[in-house]
Amino acid sequence: MQEILDASTPGDWRRLDPKNTVYLELDAGRVVIELAPGFAPAHVGNIRTLAHAGYWNGMSINRSQDNFVVQWGDPAEDDKDRKSLGKAKAKLPAEFERKAAGLDFHALPDRDGWAPQVGFAQGFPAARNPEAGTAWLAHCYGMVGAGRDTAADSSNGTELYVVTGQSPRQLDRNITMVGRVVQGMEKLSVLPRGTGPLGFYEKPEQRTAIKAIRLASDVPKKERTALEVLRTGTPLFEELVEARRNRRDDWYKVPAGHIDLCNVPLPVREVAKK
Amino acid sequence: MQEILDASTPGDWRRLDPKNTVYLELDAGRVVIELAPGFAPAHVGNIRTLAHAGYWNGMSINRSQDNFVVQWGDPAEDDKDRKSLGKAKAKLPAEFERKAAGLDFHALPDRDGWAPQVGFAQGFPAARNPEAGTAWLAHCYGMVGAGRDTAADSSNGTELYVVTGQSPRQLDRNITMVGRVVQGMEKLSVLPRGTGPLGFYEKPEQRTAIKAIRLASDVPKKERTALEVLRTGTPLFEELVEARRNRRDDWYKVPAGHIDLCNVPLPVREVAKK
């Protein structure tokens, strides 16, 4: 894989857009999330508003369930104790799917069990149903979703989770996905597992404090993390996928000839600041 | 799922065999591993010999690579500094596959991309090629394998890894799998990620000490962890798989109608000691 990346040209990479980039600031450092407005415009809009207002600052990561997700948000159990949403909307539509029309979707060569087609769109692992004309984001490692209650439209973007375990693809089309962690997953994946139901921490002091969640565009340029993500719709990316489908190094005795969507790496690199 | 387990009878469960059970003792507590002699008899034989002799006691977990594996063994880099294998064999055959004949294999209803058939055998996630008449264990979360160098037969069971990330099924049939963590995964999955190549720790003090690795049959009965594992070849287990293929609770709006091998839970319970 490194050989392929070494052969990449500047055009194979894209710079993260600060308006679509969120920094989750922990004592352990920064986690960088790329938002997916192309799939969840209403949720991303709310997340931008909430981050801009400092909604999550001083809140905490309240849940870490082994082989599943970590999750943060307002830990208050009673509605009356919850922090005000300020200018953010209290109610959003469910954004489980979008129209496939107009979406630049690059399908993987291999069949998937969960969806008619899988591949990448706008840099995210995604799925598509050509018959229904729909597309949606897939629950791969590092993907970020908006927690909800039983009603499909009960998420407002305040309660966010990150996949830290075996891809729970059964959640696809059941919940609104809002983006992906592009740097810092190892700060979330090591969080002690909560011992309460669903991996929630039983004692407040077990939670991990959130110093701040900020939109990169609200952060002074010199404090931003300058990241580039490999484009997914290029010949180079196809070459990378093929190199992972059939490993060519001497260590592998039986190349798989296959790859699952969530096994495809999505390279990210830091770039020198100007 | 809990409803199905609540309806189980004692015959739906099997007690772990102490001769096939290994305890990895850490400061954080005990990790319980079930060995798979039906798939890797030579490696399991060596692991029993090594554990019996206390080979790993005082060694360490030397590697934690995010979304991939943790790994332990002798951290010595030079062969001359390595601990003696004692009565264990220095050389073992590669045990990547076994004959499918004679193996009680229960296939899942869904197609898999990595293998002609997948399902469960002897309680482990496994795959089968009916044409070739072969079967092998699958790299799902919690599965344990024997690290090797480039030569297929270069593993001896001293260097063991546990899958902590998205199932790296490309490793199937490329490395000998020896068992599965049945309890205590959350003690391994939270280990800080190593910052060296492949997630190895760069400083010795970053490693996690191994107090002991013991065969349960070498441990006094009252100190054993009494565990039962749900049998995988039963009508109850099929019911459980179906309940996970199509979630019936109100939360799910679009049941997947599918499950991947590595998404099937393998329930374990502690039983009261007599």
TrEMBL record, chains A, B:
Keyword Isomerase on entry: yes
Enzyme nomenclature, EC number: 5.2.1.8
Keyword entries, A-Z: Isomerase, Rotamase
Transmembrane segments: none
Top-level lineage group: Bacteria
Class in the EC hierarchy, top level: isomerase
InterPro entries: Cyclophilin-like_dom_sf (IPR029000), Cyclophilin-type_PPIase_dom (IPR002130), E_coli_cyclophilin_A-like (IPR044665)
Record-level Gene Ontology MF annotations: peptidyl-prolyl cis-trans isomerase activity
Protein name: peptidylprolyl isomerase
PPIase cyclophilin-type domain sequence ranges: 27-215
